[in-house]
Write a structure and sequence with these properties.
Radius of gyration of chain B: 22 Å
Order of helices and strands of chain C: HEEEEHEHEHEEEHEHEHEEHH
Largest interface: A-B, 54 and 52 residues
Structural class of chain B: mainly alpha
Strand order of the largest sheet of chain C: 5-1-6-13-7
Structural class of chain C: alpha/beta
Strand content of chain B: under 5%
Largest sheet of chain B: none
Chains: A mainly alpha, B mainly alpha, C alpha/beta
Radius of gyration of chain C: 19 Å
Mean pLDDT of chain C: 84
CATH architecture of chain B: Orthogonal Bundle
CATH topology of the largest domain in chain C: D-Maltodextrin-Binding Protein, domain 2
Number of domains of chain B: 1
Mean pLDDT of chain B: 88
CATH superfamily of the largest domain in chain C: Periplasmic binding protein-like II
Largest sheet of chain C: 5 strands, mixed
Distance between the termini of chain B: 45 Å
Strand content of chain C: 15-25%
Shape of chain B: globular
Number of domains of chain C: 2
Low-confidence stretches of chain B: 261-268
Order of helices and strands of chain B: HHHHHHHEHH
CATH class of the largest domain in chain C: Alpha Beta
Number of helices of chain B: 9
CATH class of chain B: Mainly Alpha
CATH topology of chain B: MetI-like fold
Number of strands of chain B: 1
Distance between the termini of chain C: 37 Å
Oligomer: heterotrimer
């Protein structure tokens, strides 16, 4: 990076550190923070969509749909996320390739499972074999987002399902009395109102989602934990120009600070929303607000 | 080898009883189910004891957060932020590092680097922080009429807390607390995965699931077995918490006893 | 017979496949110096990087490097996320049942013990290994007490802080570490595990396996493989 970095072994103190912290490897570390934030930004709305679909299905009057919705919520919530992460990505990938294989290569006569191998025709490969590396990485990222969304969608579904039930029954009856159809009642009365009830649960889910990201490396995404481990491990002078001992503690300390700050900022934001919601409520929280000196 | 023999050999393998060596080849479904089930003993152990001990600290933390004394409030707030704000993954890492450092100070700390104690302490503090926040949220949602009525009846201080505020707080917090318990049991899967070393191949359910996935190169059998066990465990937790919930709400009219979601409680 | 038919099918298939498969994706771990590691500029480097690039050049293939966690490196190969494992993977019978190996490109590497002092009783003591390695399986079979850690880094840390008496791992890895850390001693006892290191390919990829075998042959013949082994201090050279 800097011109004086050509021979780091002669450097000391801050100059050495400035070179060390600007290696190409550290660039990977810094970029991975962006990766995590991007993943959170995409996953949150996707999981919410999954959750909305799940909750709506669980409320359905058609029993197969209702059954699917309830099973989805119950199963995914019952299993530790880490267990999903360990085999879901491969399962999803094979599922997509299998589907594409059936569509794109209908006259393929070989079995897809040859012993342990999972073999599909070249055209069905995802991404295509000759695709550049960034396509592969984007695809891996997409699978990670999907896995996260499926897992956290179930939790969101549970929250939304509860919120939908919390909307006072009288409101729905009034809507019906005004001649609204079931669909109209759902979209015009229930959905706009349920968010107030769902907000505490959803904001907590957001905090949980943030703290699940250290498991991203299991999904094949080179995230901050991957780089912290990689950079922090003992480095021998044979393999690097910047040898050092076991520095994992310092790198994990950076991660700790990152997560604490991120959580704190999110909490401040949520707290402001909560204050707005608690205002005027006949609870001890609302009472404290009322009595507080202005 | 018959399945019954396998169960005798491996049912308590995670505690160090039974066969010394893990299966090496020709892995049967029976072996996988038995060993992963054996590992569940640890998951239940960690979850159960962390939940019980964490409950008491959580009550203290909730009261601390609601305290009017500044330093008590600040201390509780920092405790909650530290453990709720950082991933468990990173907490395990620092705990293990810290316990190792303590070990060189005095041999009293020797057992702390072992999972059965060290990981339990981390999980205990972790769940205390989460539950403390839930209880604090419930504390703020107690209907003001309840407290005013207690005042009118002449309750104050500890009796008011024990007879009026605490039961109401528990009642309000219960649905969210059920969720927290489920999450806690799920979190126990991380103990041997990242954090504490496994001695003599004695590990939890995920350790054995990982072992089989590693040996058979097929993740599609052991992990779903693990998932099945956890679904069962979750059902048991939900059942027990449901019973306690009925007990807590036994004074309410019949149809109001079902878990009611209070508006301001937090789920994890 | 059935195997033969299958093999012919696979051959016919892969003949058609190589046309489309100009790019061969090489999967490695990137955390096992000197075999493979991430260098300062963030790229895969090491003995296997140089070897792999040379093999691809000789086989006239375009190669792309990807890293993957050690735990899921075989499931991802059979599921087709990359085409070759080149990650210091010892050829063992249980792995050979699931994937195919090319011929070994290193002489079997002895496994060593490293401890804080020379008088550790490794047959009875506490031995640290990485989870899921052939070393872990070996110690589990012996009378020693096995303690497993997720990464090689943690096994060394365990010995330094007294959690374990010794680390049990590949000679090339441990010798590099012990050379730079005066507190660590390489013990005399050695164990020979595994059948050398080879590249892993899918069982259905007979063509690719043959291509790499030819390339390894040519590198063995002209001495360039031995030169690489000496350069990276991998162990003994081929005769």
């Amino acid at each position: 990076m800097f011109s004086y970095c050509t021979d780091p072994s002669t450097l000391e103190g801050l100059t050495w550190l400035s070179c060390y912290l600007t290696t190409g490897k550290h660039a990977g570390f810094y970029i991975s923070f962006g990766t995590v934030l991007l993943l959170l930004a995409i996953t949150a709305p996707t999981a919410l969509a999954f959750g909305f679909a799940g909750a709506t299905a669980a409320r359905s009057r058609l029993w197969p749909i209702k059954w699917i919705g309830k099973t989805y919520i119950a199963i995914v919530r019952g299993v530790p996320d880490i267990a999903f992460f360990l085999f879901f990505v491969i399962a999803l990938d094979q599922m997509f390739e299998w589907a594409r294989h059936k569509i794109k290569c209908p006259d393929w006569d070989q079995p897809i499972r040859q012993g342990n191998d999972f073999v599909v025709c070249q055209a069905a490969k995802l991404p295509l074999g000759e695709a550049p590396q960034w396509v592969h990485e984007t695809y891996g990222f997409f699978l990670a987002v999907l896995t996260f969304a499926i897992v956290f969608g179930a939790f969101a579904a549970n929250v939304l399902f509860g919120a939908m039930r919390a909307v006072p029954q009288g409101q729905l009856e009034t809507a019906e009395a005004y001649g609204m159809s079931r669909r109209q009642t759902f979209w015009r009365i229930l959905v706009p109102q349920m968010w107030v009830y769902a907000l505490p649960g959803l904001s907590n889910l957001w905090l949980v989602l943030i703290k699940a990201t250290p498991l991203l490396f299991l999904l094949g995404v080179e995230d901050i934990v991957y780089w912290a481990r990689e950079l922090g491990g003992t480095k021998l002078s044979r393999f690097t120009e910047y040898p050092h001992g076991d520095w994992r503690m310092w790198y994990f300390l950076v991660l700790l600070v990152f997560y604490l700050c991120f959580t704190k900022v999110s909490e401040l934001f949520i707290e402001r929303l909560m204050v707005k919601l608690t205002h005027g409520q006949a609870t001890t929280g609302g009472e404290t607000q009322r009595k507080a000196p202005v | 080898m018959s399945c019954w023999q396998t169960i005798q050999d491996y049912a308590f393998r995670s505690l160090g009883h039974g066969a010394r060596l893990l299966p090496k080849d020709d892995f049967t479904l029976c072996e996988q189910i038995t060993l992963i089930g054996s590992g569940m003993i640890w998951n239940v152990y960690f979850g159960f004891f962390a939940l019980i001990t964490g409950f008491f600290l959580a009550t203290a933390v909730a009261l601390g957060k609601a305290s009017t004394t500044t330093w008590v409030r600040k201390l509780s707030e920092w405790f909650v932020l530290l453990f709720r704000g950082s991933p468990l993954f990173i907490q395990f890492f620092f705990a293990y590092f810290g316990f190792l450092a303590l070990k060189s100070v005095s041999p009293i700390f020797n057992p702390f680097t072992a999972a059965w104690l060290g990981a339990l302490i981390v999980l205990f503090l972790n769940t205390a922080a989460y539950t403390g926040e839930i209880f604090y949220g419930a504390l703020r949602s107690i209907p003001k009429g309840d407290v005013e009525a207690a005042d009118a009846y002449g309750f104050s201080g500890i009796p008011r807390f024990r007879r009026i505020i605490w039961p109401t707080m528990l009642r309000l917090a219960w649905p969210a607390y059920t969720n927290e318990a489920i999450f806690l049991f799920h979190a126990t899967a991380l103990v041997f995965f990242s954090g504490f070393p496994a001695w003599q191949q004695r590990g939890d359910a995920l350790y054995y699931a990982n072992y089989f996935a590693d040996k058979t190169f097929n993740p599609f059998i052991p992990y779903p077995i693990l998932a099945g066990y956890f679904i069962l465990l979750t059902l048991v937790i939900v059942g027990i918490f449901g019973l306690i919930n009925r007990h807590l709400n036994r004074h309410l009219p019949q149809d109001a006893r079902r878990m009611k979601r209070p508006r301001m409680t937090l789920i994890r | 017979m059935k195997k033969l038919v299958l093999a012919t099918c696979a051959l016919a298939l892969s003949a058609g496949m190589t046309m489309a498969m100009d790019v061969v994706r090489m999967g490695t771990e990137g955390a096992y110096p000197p075999w493979n590691f991430i260098n300062d500029s963030g790229e895969v480097d090491g003995f296997e990087r140089e070897l792999g690039d040379e093999l691809c050049k000789r086989a006239e293939l375009t190669c792309e490097w990807v890293t993957n966690e050690w735990d899921s490196i075989i499931p991802n190969l059979v599921s087709g996320n990359y085409d070759v494992i080149i990650a210091g993977m010892s050829i063992t019978d249980e792995r050979d049942e699931v994937i195919d190996f090319t011929q070994n490109y290193s002489v079997p590497d002895p496994t060593l013990y490293v401890a804080l002092s020379g008088d550790v009783d490794v047959d009875k003591g506490v031995i640290a290994t990485q989870t899921g390695t052939i070393q872990a399986a070996y110690i589990a079979d012996s009378d020693a007490t096995l303690v497993e850690f997720a990464t090689p880094e943690e096994t060394l840390a365990a010995v330094r802080n007294g959690e374990a008496d010794a680390v049990f791992a590949d000679a090339s890895f441990l010798e590099a570490v012990a050379a730079e850390d005066d507190s660590l001693v390489v013990l005399e006892k050695q164990v020979l595990l595994g059948g050398g290191v080879g590249m892993g390919v899918r069982e259905s990829d007979a063509e690719l396996k043959a291509t790499f075998n030819t390339a390894i042959d040519s590198m063995k013949a002209d001495g360039s493989l031995n030169a690489l082994i000496t350069k990276w201090e991998i162990g003994s050279t081929f005769e």
